[in-house]
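2024-03-11 09:14:02 INFO receiving multi-entity request
2024-03-11 09:14:02 INFO entity count = four
2024-03-11 09:14:03 INFO echoing inputs for audit
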Amino acid sequence: MKLNSKGRYAVMAMADLALFKDKGPISLTDISIRQNISLAYLEQIFIKLKHNNLVKSVRGAKGGYVLEHSPDTIKISKIISAVDEEIKTLNCKKDSKKGCNNKSSKCITHNLWDQLDQHINNFFEKVKLQDLIKKNQTLNK
Amino acid sequence: MKLNSKGRYAVMAMADLALFKDKGPISLTDISIRQNISLAYLEQIFIKLKHNNLVKSVRGAKGGYVLEHSPDTIKISKIISAVDEEIKTLNCKKDSKKGCNNKSSKCITHNLWDQLDQHINNFFEKVKLQDLIKKNQTLNK
DNA sequence: TTAATTCCTACCTTTACACTATGATTTAAA
DNA sequence: TTTAAATCATAGTGTAAAGGTAGGAATTAA
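2024-03-11 09:21:47 INFO inference complete, emitting structure
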């Protein structure tokens, strides 16, 4: 699981969409202002979100994006993996130069990072988009 | 919690020390060969491990490093935080430029990352150095 | 005295991240 | 029909950090 601000921005933007989901298509300009993320960067992120069927786009003036599914069915893990190509924190694979090979006493930590990845994935699997906006409802009413 | 290969190397090296803890001081040259980590880079890592009282150094010929404590008392979290200055994955602090401020609808994801950090820390808190080498004992006997 | 080691600090190289720039396409509304 | 607002697409860029190297000084067992 790659944890960077692209993933964080994606979650923020999706949460923004969820908050305003009754207002029709939300433009990236709006999200850009509200969440303080550059518009052009948001565009890149939303291409990926769209390709992963997390949002639908409405082109042209008064267009924007809407959630493809209900916030209570969207897992955070889906969002993060949509914008990050890789899933692994630290690879230790056959094909990477520096990693496991067949020497003894190598890869002592292999299982550890595997378990960590599972642990993080498991965390994001359990949290839904709805869970985020519930906590902010009073703030944003 | 910063997850990079410095932290991974540190854990690998500490596990190596644990595996060979009955052989007296272990030189970084040995660890470098066994774990396939550059010697000079290991030196940097071990300075930090030493300053954090995780290892003791024995200078001069036949010198090296030994664990300061028993492997079953050393938490992985201690090792990783020793070599990484930062603890947070993604900061969202007052003093950072891009982060929380008092605008409404900001920081929707603030709690999420806080909880993730706790989750990861909790994972590394529960794993001891001994847990790693147990799994490799048959391989390295 | 020598070789093996830790210790220390400065430097270097590459890469990925985060972002910008530019322009094309689509479409609602004036 | 024109204009402005929006998505769509891709290439380029600046920077910081990761992941090392390099070179030498200090220490110590043999």
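2024-03-11 09:21:48 INFO post-check: Residues 110-126 of chain A form the longest helix (17 residues).
2024-03-11 09:21:48 INFO post-check: Strands of chain A lie at 55-58, 64-67.
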